């Protein structure tokens, strides 16, 4: 499977770089989301602006568009099958007014992942439900149970198997995961080797993209949300960064919000969305906060690939990225006649 991040970089070279955030023009309500997923932005804007609904509602309905449209094959059903050929979904929703969170991880056989996350937020005292039990909860809440596989996802899995299961996420096992499919057994601990670089290279050559969305409604309430089908060929049971509070997204009415995308297994080790919000709390602009959050990661993982969108409580927005040429994000606010896709030039490590 081709590197989706690099594909983004290729077509984005046709766009003119945006070096300034139109911060002074961006008052709420406002919607900002990762990538050029403009149909999701437009839907969220309609919900938050014309319908005067909450930021939570806008994010759920906006991200749901991507789930239905299978944005880039990396959101919603029919994409990124795991090693068993099954597509599972992660989603997250955070209310910046109450600091409450609803999330689902590796949910099976339910297409409406972010809507289920909203039900976790509204109807439970938990933060996250995962796996088959998350599916059971969704069915109890009235969601339809159905396969998330498609002919396309079945072919992706079949092609991967025919290529000796390359690439994959295993290490320190036998037979060699670089040449063979499983099942695997662990090697003796005395022979364990670190493989940070190979992990990073894997994502650099076979990545995925999350829709991460932040919004401020007409009441000034802030929310963040994410939805994804995760990493291609992941080990079954893997949960990425998207549903992890502070990693995939974070929102706080007193400061702002952020949402990140990229190599989830690395992202969740640094909680970049929370970092960006806290950097703003300490006086940084959204752009500066995003860059600082990316720098925190790239200092340890120079080949890391990812991006982040950031918004402060006044509707000033920014973005930052690392490891690709450009990072696009979609914006809709009252000063615009329609949705706008901006992009940021990314940092690169030598």
From TrEMBL:
Its EC number is 3.5.1.26. InterPro entries: Ntn_hydrolases_N (IPR029055), Peptidase_T2 (IPR000246). Keywords: Autocatalytic cleavage, Disulfide bond, Hydrolase, Protease, Signal. Heterotetramer of two alpha and two beta chains arranged as a dimer of alpha/beta heterodimers. Substrate binds at residues 238-241, 261-264. The record marks 209-210 as: Cleavage. This is N(4)-(beta-N-acetylglucosaminyl)-L-asparaginase. One of its GO terms (biological process) is proteolysis. It catalyses: N(4)-(beta-N-acetyl-D-glucosaminyl)-L-asparagine + H2O = N-acetyl-beta-D-glucosaminylamine + L-aspartate + H(+). It is an enzyme of class 3 (hydrolase). The keyword Hydrolase applies. Residues 1-23 form the signal peptide. Cleaves the GlcNAc-Asn bond which joins oligosaccharides to the peptide of asparagine-linked glycoproteins.
